[in-house]
Design brief:
The complex is a heterodimer of chains A (about 700) and B (about 350).
Chain A (H helix, E strand, L loop, with lengths): L1 E2 L12 H12 L2 E5 L12 H27 L1 E2 L14 E8 L9 H15 L5 E7 L3 E5 L1 H6 L5 H10 L10 H15 L4 E8 L19 E7 L9 E5 L13 E7 L7 E8 L3 E6 L5 E6 L5 E6 L8 E5 L7 E7 L6 E7 L4 E6 L15 H10 L22 E6 L5 H12 L3 E5 L6 H8 L4 E5 L7 E4 L25 E5 L7 E6 L4 E8 L2 E6 L16 H11 L7 E4 L4 E3 L6 E3 L5 E3 L4 E3 L4 E6 L4 E4 L3 H4 L8 H4 L6 H6 L9 H6 L8 H30 L1
Parallel strand pairs in A: 4-5, 4-7, 7-8, 16-19, 19-20, 20-26, 27-33
Antiparallel strand pairs in A: 1-3, 5-6, 9-10, 10-13, 11-12, 11-14, 14-15, 16-17, 17-18, 21-23, 22-24, 24-25, 25-26, 28-31, 29-30, 29-32, 32-33
Helix pairs in contact in A: 2-15, 3-5, 8-9
Chain B lengths: L2 H8 L6 H7 L18 H5 L4 H13 L13 E7 L11 H7 L3 E6 L6 E6 L13 H18 L4 E6 L3 E8 L8 H5 L10 H11 L5 E6 L6 H12 L3 E8 L1 H5 L5 E6 L5 E5 H25 L4 E5 L4 H15 L12
Parallel strand pairs in B: 3-4, 3-6, 6-7, 7-10
Antiparallel strand pairs in B: 1-2, 4-5, 8-9
Helix pairs in contact in B: 2-12, 4-6, 8-9
Classes of the chains: A alpha+beta (about 700), B alpha/beta (about 350).
Chain lengths: ~700, ~350
Amino acid sequence: MALLSPWFLLGLLAVAGPLVAHLRRLNVQKRVAFSAVDLLEARPPRSARRSWEDVALLAARIAVLGLLSLAFARPYLPVATGGAGAAGELRRLVVLLDTSASMRRGKTFEEARGLAIERVARAEAPTALELRTFDRSVRTVLPFAQWQRTPEAERGTLFKGAITAIEPGWSVARLDEALRALAEQHNAEAAGGYTEVMVVSDFQEGSSLTGLQGYEWPQRFGVTLCKVGPQQQPAGVTLRWLPPDLDTAPSDAPCRVQVVASADFQAETVKLLVEGSRPSAVSFPVVAGKSKVASFPQEAVHARVRAEGFDDIAAATWVARVPQRRALVAVAVANADASGKRLQFWDHRSRKFVGSISPNASGKPPAEDKTASAYFVRSALGALGEARVESADAATLPPGRDAEVALWVVCSKTDPALEERIRNSVEGGATALVLLAGEADAPSLSALSGIPIGAKEKALESFVVLGAIAREHPLFAPFQAPQFSDFTAIRFWKYRALELPGESGAQVLARFEGGDPALVEVRRGEGRVLAWASDWRPADGQWVLSSRCVPFLAACVELAGGGRRQLLTGTPGESFPLPPGSTGVRNDGGGLVPVSGGAVVLDQPGVYPIEPGGGIVVVNIAPEEASAASLPEGKLEALGVPVNKQAVSEKPGASGLVSAEALALGELESRQGAWRFVLAAVLGLLVVETLWAARITQKRKGIA
Amino acid sequence: MSEGWFQRLFGPRTVSPADALRKGSWNAPGGPGAEIVPWMDVPTLMAIGSLELRVRRLVEGLSRGIHRSVRRGYSTEFTEYRPYTPGDDLRHMDWRRLARTDRPFVRQYEEESEWGCLVVMDLSASMGFGSLSHSKADYGRTLAGTLGTFLHGQGDPVGLLRFADELGDIVPVRRLARQLSRWWPLLAAPPAGDGTGLGKAMEGALRLLKRPGLVAVVSDLLTPPGSWAEPLRLLRAARHEVVVFEVLDPQELEFRYEGDTRFEHMESPLRLDLDAAQVRESYLQRLGAHREACAALCESEGVPLLSARTDLPLEPLLRSAFSEIARLRPHAGGGRKGGN
């Protein structure tokens, strides 16, 4: 048992108090010259019993003081790390090399490699040696088996070759996971032998240590700390990109970079260089030890911002503009005064129509037909936000923006060119809602959906209502509440009976009460084509005037990814899930990093455009890894890591993370919880002593 | 003669102290004893270092209630007249002279015989015990000195016998004017000895007193009653009157000691390590039995036993003593005419 604060044992001197009092009381026996001693009964005094009671009370009080001192001294059971290297026993040495981003600073990693080689060369020849690296994950570079297979004379060369090939990465250091993994391996493989883990790292303060809290370390497992890198944090700045809020920020939102100046930063301004297709520079005032946010317009889609004059990895960050989203609703209507078709675009993000294109390029806005379905569709879209219709010529909305269209509303028969645009957009993830105004629209529907769908005008004597609805479909998600789930009040006077081919993959989402499909979904590519068997004119039915129409349109937009994020941010080594339909991301060299399992793993900082779609993945160094400060002394010991002190002392120039004083500073909760039990024993003993003393006193008073 | 005339002539009618002494009514409720107020409290009295001075103060205090008429004996031999003073016994009033001169006089008589008084003073080591500012010996010395002074003042021949384990110095019974001056050095001797030779002291008193007299024993009686029972019987057989003053300290009577105590006997090497609280009850029982035995012995011999507790004033005790002495005096009417 070791003591965290052994000087508290000086409190044992307090034991002298009751001891002296007891001895003095023993000597203070009264002497009385009495005249009638012969009348006194020579009864043997109870001194024997009394002294026994007094001695027991004295012992209890001494025990209380002693235990109190012991509790304050905070005893703990040190993990047995000794015994390493006993003759004939299995002794394993694991060199755990830090390859996190912080090791890229200056020549830190070269120093780490050299130190590891030196320490292994100086170390007593182990039974087995393993070389591992750790950052976000642990990798085995030189396994035990390979070391043991290699002739002893070649092992040094083998180790040097293996460690020389290692390069530092960009990800965070998860020291806790690395040590725990080695501890688990020790439990599984050590077979009673001793395992020494030589951690070569800069022990940067951002290293993850939370997993070490309360961990039960195995016996005969020790950790040697070999610190490399600068002993003091250099003066400098740390840049960190603050991603915009995708829900609110416009695409031209300014770039925001957090600039943190170290406490000993001397300059008053820092020059931020924007590197990329449109380089620029921004001077920004900073205050030592303070954090401020620099905001400046960003012209390039993505860029690298770094602080001039600082080569530190933390003094740079990658930034990107808000990516475009599928935020348009295109309404294709028949032009009343032309043979072509006209498109109107509704910007879902800005809640307004942003333009229209007219294939015949007449240049004049079409006359508004307030009985056509397009009018009501536009009205319904306007109900989503600001109901304002803007007209423009074709040049205002180039066909290149088709990728931004989330929903195509086809209100009439389309021409082949428009059909191809819609089809391509649907395969990229958009949704096409085809409103069948008559049997003549069926070919367009078939062309868009890719399956032959026939339509036949249905003659109705009266009206019909929607009978069966696939309520579990996302389109009907807004109507899950009971007050919205009733569709029986919506009457239809006209509709077209759709003839769906068998095994076509089309899914009927709603049927009229007669059983004819009312809404059919056909998946195509990443998108879908929705066929509505009725026109949205009031003459055909009440649907477009009902309260269900607007939420239905909104659901169509959301279903097409209109609100989905396409800006992904993270740190090197993370796995980034890409949107459906993405093939991968483009790296700096233009190469495609293919998607695997719906995600990509990116190891280096940078901006990676998502292919296709225009989304962006921004990878930056983790903020915790950007700090150059080291872990506080004794931090690992405070967390209970069985650190070998002697090995650290052998390293010349090492900062010495371990010191006896450091033990007192930390809270060794995992190892020194014994003081609680000691304190409980003290309390119990005090209670017993008090009751006992009261009983004795009462008894003696009674006798008196 | 009306009551007003009588009172105007003789003052308020009170009982004469001498009468009270003779009648033994000092301690009677409502009697003269009820008016006794100690002249000094015990600590103040004992603070007077000189025994002679202490005794004198005590006697002066006692004299406030005891008039000069009692200083002389009463006998059939007329000696002179003296003016009446309030408190004089009216039986000795000379009524004829009163009729002739209209002034009251009382007759004084020559004592018919001497009644020697021997004070036997215990100065054994146990008398040196005292839990107060004074010891039992101090208290006993004062008591003995006061007795001697008072009796000597009455004209009785007085003597002193000091003893411890053995007989000590003796002042023979005389009626000399400077008789008392020989007492003080003897009484001032410190307590000593390895025991209480009360029996030997009584035997010595028996030898000293040639004629029937009074033996006043001042002792703590912390010796077995059997050791002095026979000498007491012999004294009584020789027609001596005996008064025993049992001088005890309140600590001896109450035993208020606490805790572990080593008790060292003052008259022997006996040492006892005891829990005082533990032995208190048995001690008090034994002490009570011892005192009862002493009292039974004295009662069987017709000897008054007066308890003298050293924390109580001496005046009541002395008045009781005088009452007893007056009762025992052979010619006082109340005295016994013979031994029992």
